[in-house]
Amino acid sequence: MRMKYLIGLNLIVGVLLLTACHSHASRSELAQQNVQVVRQFTEAFNNHDVDAMLEFAHPDIEWGSVQGDTLSMEAAGHAELRQGMDSYFSALPSVRSSIESVMPGERFTGVRERASWESDGESKSQSSIAVYEIEDGRILRVTYFPAEHREHR
Q1: Helices (H), 49-146
Q2: What CA–CA distance (Å, rounded) separates 95 from 48?
Q3: pTM (2 decimals)?
């Protein structure tokens, strides 16, 4: 009887450990999938491909920026994001973004991004921290914090 109890207990502990490991792996996989969504969104941005950007954006996407104690909504929804990106790319046709570092998460993915562009014959860039909130594999919200500027000559 005691032997059956120990075998049963070991079986339960084994199942719980496997479940915990699988759950941890699933969370880790989800975090890596979210990083991939952000990278693909950034690639579409670099190609100035708004249609591709929208593929990675939730229909209810909110694009915001923080200045001091104020959060400003730059765009809400696909239509506003398209309009904003079209204007941005027209004003800065050389703009590109690179991801300098990533903090993966199951719902929120933080990145340090560097935007670079040419202006009046000079190379310019600025870096900013952005937090992407991802739901069902699409970006629901992105919030940018104040940029740090660096100019190249």
Answers
A1: 50-55, 78-91
A2: 9
A3: 0.79
